[in-house]
């Protein structure tokens, strides 16, 4: 009977605890303070441009897009006297055109905002990144996903710390084909093919690896991403561009801490959120937080294409036919003509734009230059 009483009390206690769980918003998260976030990389290979994005933090409850810093002045300074100025493109993005850099020079970034604040990074040495050996894939035994892996090595054993980013593009077709469209209350032949599109995404995953504890600076089958076949990205043709960056130990620690804070928090036993800044400081107010890590170097990249035929075409609602007048009045999505028996005027087969217009899925009809 004692055991039954104890179990009963424990059960009631758990119910009470569960009933007392309330949402908690720490003061730091609810604060309206905005802090600058610097995201970018100085590409010193002399062939590609460098890009820096300036945005601001926001409270978690704010569902709007991040605010950006416009009309800022961004200058890269070398410790041997060279200076390079970025040009504003728009929406917080700044670009530095390709140019020749001194490999023996260290660089830092200086940012001046319209609010008369100045931010300055530490000097960093350009990091040479070894080439990517290969980008491979592995199909799951149940064919529910395909894993993309990367392989690389540094024969000089000098890199040790790696980071990857990737951009994926895929071609897709719609189940229905539209031959006609309505313009100015008239039915005309459709000029643009809206059945086939290409869509590009650049996930923000933080992908890292280190060989510091290994006898050789070799990365084998580091996972980059898993592609569920249900997404239909692999049905027609898929391409992934993997970009590889060699990091300093300080840069690796920054990205590791950021990954733990942004990607693995939320569970009871996950790492607790922590303040992750970087190597950039506010010179006008040393107490102000700044987020971001400035680094420089020569990245490497490799693109691969896959044509695996994995996935299924979407199911569409049954088609319907309308007269010319009814189709124009309803501004219907037109597929083809249909001439009923004995009729002199055709009717039009109408469908759903979600099954015939590839642009509704977020893609574009222009074939990428690398396709």
Please specify the SSE layout and strand pairing.
Blueprint: H1 2-19, H2 27-30, E1 36-43, E2 50-56, E3 73-78, E4 83-85, E5 87-90, E6 93-96, E7 107-112, E8 118-121, E9 127-128, E10 132-139, E11 145-153, E12 161-173, E13 180-183, E14 186-189, E15 196-201, E16 207-210, E17 218-228, E18 237-246, H3 249-263, E19 280-282, E20 290-291, E21 296-298, E22 300-306, E23 320-322, H4 324-330, E24 333-338, E25 347-351, H5 353-356
Parallel strand pairs: 1-20, 1-21, 9-21
Antiparallel strand pairs: 1-2, 2-6, 3-4, 3-7, 5-6, 7-8, 8-19, 10-11, 11-17, 12-15, 12-16, 12-18, 13-14, 18-22, 23-25, 24-25
Task: Tell me what you see in this structure.
The protein is mostly beta strands and 371 residues long. The protein has two domains: 26-123 and 264-294, Immunoglobulin-like (Sandwich); 132-233 and 311-361, no CATH class. It is 13% helix and 38% strand. It has helices at residues 2-19, 27-30, 249-263, 324-330, 353-356; strands spanning 36-43, 50-56, 73-78, 83-85, 87-90, 93-96, 107-112, 118-121, 127-128, 132-139, 145-153, 161-173, 180-183, 186-189, 196-201, 207-210, 218-228, 237-246, 280-282, 290-291, 296-298, 300-306, 320-322, 333-338, 347-351. Strands 1, 2, 5, 6, 9, 20 and 21 form a seven-stranded mixed sheet that branches. The protein has a five-stranded antiparallel sheet with strand order 4-3-7-8-19, with no helix packed on it. The longest helix has 18 residues, at 2-19.
